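Methods, example record. To illustrate the input and output format used throughout this study, we show the complete record for DNA topoisomerase (ATP-hydrolyzing). The sequence lines were provided to the predictor; the line carrying structure tokens was produced by it.
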Amino acid sequence: MEGNRGSLERIEVLRKITELTRSMIVELSNGSSKMIAIDRFKSYCTNSLENCCCRFNLSEGKDVLTLQRESHVRRLDVLLRVLLIIQQLLRENRHSSKRDMYYMHPSIFTDQSVVDRAINDICILLQCSRHNLNVVSVGNGLVMGWLRFSEAGRRFDCLKKPNSAQFIPVQVEEVTDIATAADYILVVEKESVFQRLANDRFCSRNRCIVITGRGYPDVPTRRFLRLLVDVLALPAFCLVDCDPYGFDILTTYRFGSMQMAYDAKNLRIPQLQWIGAFASDSEKYDLPEQCLIPLTSKDKRRTEALLQRCYLRREVPHWRLELDSMLQRGVKFEIEALSVHNISFLSDHYLPSKIESELTTGKLIGDYQSIHSTNMGLVWNGNGMS
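The corresponding predicted structure is encoded as:
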């Protein structure tokens, strides 16, 4: 079934490529200098809520590429070269990384960002996601805990060793047979925190799934997390450093990135809840001054810019209050600063108390627990629940 669906998707994308190139040829034959119009998307603005028009999946305008401007001609040249590579990948049912594609014409592409932009343009023009083009990322994400799944015929059984890391699969569309007995999903910003939890055998003592994107998450990590949240309907929590970069990573998971705003519907995780680290935690957990780092001028500018994002005012105003509190205090700190009390303070006290507080309020757990069976929990076979 998965193979048939993948074949149909490839055929549909190839059909769209043919239609796109045919329309460009027609424009040329008619003597038109206008070639294509590419929708523009954004995941946020800095307007007041009264003036905010941001809506996921809605274009805010178009970039009209013509043959009259040199910059447009170059952008079209790159776009068509990348489109030709993608067409070949789809016809041969092969996959390629963005980096591989760059090295196919390095003297023409000149920089990786040029290829990245072309891929995004093609996704918008064809109204598809990047994985539909057989363009894959080099996976960075890690997962551990109460989880079992298959990917392209390979079995991943985290349940046997719940505190051992597994790489998150790159081809998330091939993931099937998901089974879990977890009560929640925990996303942590950094690999160092992930390893701290693994060393403390956090997943043996807590029925959960732990994921890290090892910094800013790549597309497979975000897609995999989105799949788990959608399929398993578990509450999902996120733990990041108390600094503007940690907060930006948090918003990337929940709201999506500006660069891939066109695909936000498939990448954002609106159920994700922020549990720390908060600026107020420095006092609540009595962190000494030596653990607190003054915000730099760059940190302050970045924080002020984050505070202006419309989705914070609209969807999570309490997040905005915590971010503003960090700015007013003028200090930041890393999650690892909690180790000042003892090396396992994060695993033994901080996280259990934070998560228990969220779950027992009833705001998040809701009907989640009622969907668990008494044995292995939910199983997703790629077509539905079983």
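Annotations derived from this record:
The chain is about 45% helix and 15% strand.
The longest strand covers residues 34-40.
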